Amino acid sequence: MWREMERLRREMNQLLGETAAPSELPVLRGYPAMNIWVNENGAVVTTELPGVLPEDLDISVVDDTLTISGSRKPEEAAEGITYHRRERGCGTFTRSFQLPFKVDPHKVEASANNGILNITLPRAEEDKPKKIAVRVG
């Protein structure tokens, strides 16, 4: 019985996925794609967000977790024009990442240029490795 229910669920998902309007499609997992570089002083995150306005973004840092949320509004077609094909998604998104260290939230900087969001995340001073001097004798 459970196999039959699972088969029915898969068929329904496939049917709905093929017939849903683009604006009704589920948000892709892992959107937006991000690159993260880390070193002993902090991290840099870049992500592509074409069509997302800075005022539609929310960036927060709590301890070692970065969260980026935002929305991309749908493009409106001019009067008398209909879409021939519409593939670019719209709607809201949220991504969270745990970094390998705590971040100093007061020194985080974010900038956007040509649809690329760049976030600099300095490592918290209390979380930086401390060099311990070895005494002789």
Q: Percent range for helical residues?
A: 10-25%
Oligomer: single chain
If strands are numbered along the chain, what order do they take across the biggest sheet? 1-2-7-6
Number of helices: 1
CATH C-level class is Mainly Beta
Radius of gyration: 22 Å
CATH topology grouping? Immunoglobulin-like
- Number-wise, the strands total 7
- The domain tally reads 1
What would you note in describing this structure?
The protein is mostly beta strands. It has one domain (27-125): Immunoglobulin-like (Sandwich), CATH 2.60.40.790. Helix content is 13%, strand content 34%. The chain contains one helix and seven strands; from the N terminus they run H-E-E-E-E-E-E-E. The chain has one helix at 2-19; strands at residues 34-39, 42-48, 57-62, 65-72, 91-98, 109-113, 116-122. A four-stranded antiparallel sheet has the order 1-2-7-6, with no helix packed on it. The chain has a three-stranded antiparallel sheet with strand order 3-4-5, with no helix packed on it. A hairpin with a 2-residue loop joins strand 6 and strand 7. The radius of gyration is 22 Å and the shape is flat. The model is unreliable at 19-28 (pLDDT under 50).
Give the structure's gist in a few sentences.
13% of the residues lie in helices and 34% in strands. By secondary structure, the protein is mainly beta.
Helix and strand arrangement:
Elements: H1 2-19, E1 34-39, E2 42-48, E3 57-62, E4 65-72, E5 91-98, E6 109-113, E7 116-122
Antiparallel strand pairs: 1-2, 2-7, 3-4, 4-5, 6-7
